[in-house]
Amino acid sequence: MSPVKTQVLDSIDAVRLWRRAASVAGERVGFVPTMGALHEGHLSLMRAARKECDRVIASIFVNPLQFAPHEDFGKYPRTFDRDLELMSQEGVDAVFFPNEKEMYPEGREGVTRVMPPTELADCLEGHFRPGFFVGVATVVAKLFNIVLPEAAFFGEKDYQQLLVVKRMVHDLNLPIQVTPVATVRENDGLALSSRNVYLSDAERKVAPLLNRTLNFVKDSAQSGQLSLEAALEKGRNDLLALEGVELQYLEARHGETFLPATQFELPTVILLAAKLKSVRLIDNVVAR
Question: DSSP string of 199-261?
């Protein structure tokens, strides 16, 4: 893809003018919502959108509604100039780059919120980050209504988030195709994340063991070498034995309903979250 000059749109009105021009031209619009600090995982979403759509728009907004008071909203990396250069290289036509007042003009506290089903949003990530998926669903719904894309692209690395968005689109009858894109990894298996930059050298050496454990659980259960519960138990014990690793969860869920999986059947997703000192990482593998 030849580089383009990505147009920066900092207001809802500007996005709607841009969107109207695409509609008049009969162009299919693909949308990639992000919080910035772009890496190869984000760029893979933009390439997928570029391949399937006539025009591509991204957004960069660090959404305060999905951060708890003790989380890293203040120090979340903000690298807009670099992000803009990367988007231009990937042929992204426009980026919506609002400030908080543009998104929450009456203030974030009193904003109408989208409440995903509790059975999907209150477990795993929702348990350890209460209110997280309400914040995600609310901002994504707002962004969808601002951009009005035909298709939106989300990474499978945030698997539970992907299912929350898909369920919201289904339940609210939004005419948007939600397209999942495979997780992008380093050569040693570590899933790309904007938070990886916080890892110390020692933590970076340990981090790939998260993905190796996920693959061990999947392969052991899928091959029948171990029952699913036995494979999970061994994976948990292996991670708990690592110095500096605080395991929050290692669980198996049905890949579509997200109900707890008690025996291995396709599709099954194995998910984990762990803290390496102060850096919290999530990952998953899917058996289809």
Answer: --HHHHHHTHHHHHHHHHHHHHHHHTSS-HHHHHHHHHHHHHTSTTEEEEEEEEEETTT-PBP
